[in-house]
Write a structure and sequence with these properties.
Layout (H helix, E strand, L loop, with lengths): L3 H30 L3 H27 L19 H28 L3 H30 L4 H11 L13
Helix pairs in contact: 1-2, 1-3, 2-5, 3-4
Bound molecules: MU-OXO-diiron (FEO).
Amino acid sequence: MLKKRMEDELNKQINAEYWSAYFYLSMSAYCAGVGLAGAANWMRVQYREEIAHALKFFDYVIERGGKVELKPISEVPNEWNGIIDVFEETLKHEQIVTSLINNLMDVAIEEKDHAAKSFLQWYVDEQVEEEANVKTIIDQLQMVDGKGNGLFMIDKDLGLRVFVDSTLTVN
Ligand code: FEO
């Protein structure tokens, strides 16, 4: 059985993951609006990843006999200052998510909840990958100054991303 403090923190994280999903869906709309179909696809895949992250928490709270409480999702931004800004904001956001996951891990440690620690390790590892992927894209975009033929080629690459439910695999 989950302790109340752990349950509350996990419920907050479910909300944070849905907020992330909404954030990336908004970025997908922005990218589509500025003619970057590949980046729009990448963000839409990212949206689906965040939904999968939320559902993994959702299922875990239930599995541990806890109570899921879904809270309202706050408004997300819908305007950015070009494609480099979009991915820089993505990296900043993922760094915030990493700190949220680390805080959750701290709570699990403080509450001596070994099962939650084991569960959360998946997210700790996932965040390393999330940040590294975005950093690579930012580096590429900066190389071409976020424009011209270079951007056209990068956008083509971003269009190749397909959703794979990483929550079903072990890191
Ligand atoms: Fe759910 Fe992008 O971390």
